[in-house]
Amino acid sequence: MQTGLKISYLPQDLSSYHGYLPAFAKEHDLDYEHFLNQLKKLGLEREAFKQKIEEMSQGQKKRVALAKSLTEEASLYLWDEPANYLDLFNQDQLIKLLAKEQPAMLLVDHDQAFIEAVAKERVNLRPVL
């Protein structure tokens, strides 16, 4: 591994995400304004900004997780099922955001349309029989 390599990981399980957005950002050393900006780009509704993360819908939690990862300055973004719980509109928002920012990324997803929209290269894994 390269010295100083910074990795931002987007987990599939978001059960450890909790609290209000300002405290969450502080706990994870996120620039709060940049974090809010990413949430807006990902289409998080205004009323959700006042909720605890654990009270949000799965789609809202996923957008919080995506915004957290995108706010982190990283050399590589590792994302596990980023399109899970996102409706088509929010998937489109994410696709546009990734096309604009073009981060170095390795992602795992079952949604072939999403993969085709965001990936420059892909590896298909098949079970060994």
UniProtKB/TrEMBL annotation:
Please give the SUPFAM superfamilies that the UniProt record associates with this protein: P-loop containing nucleoside triphosphate hydrolases
State the Gene Ontology terms under molecular function.
ATP binding; ATP hydrolysis activity
**Highest taxon of the lineage:** Bacteria
**Gene3D superfamilies on file:** P-loop containing nucleotide triphosphate hydrolases (3.40.50.300)
Q: Which InterPro entries match?
A: ABC_transporter-like_ATP-bd (IPR003439), ABCF_ATPase (IPR051309), P-loop_NTPase (IPR027417)
Q: Domain named ABC transporter: which ranges?
A: 5-84
* Name of the protein described by the UniProt record: ABC transporter domain-containing protein
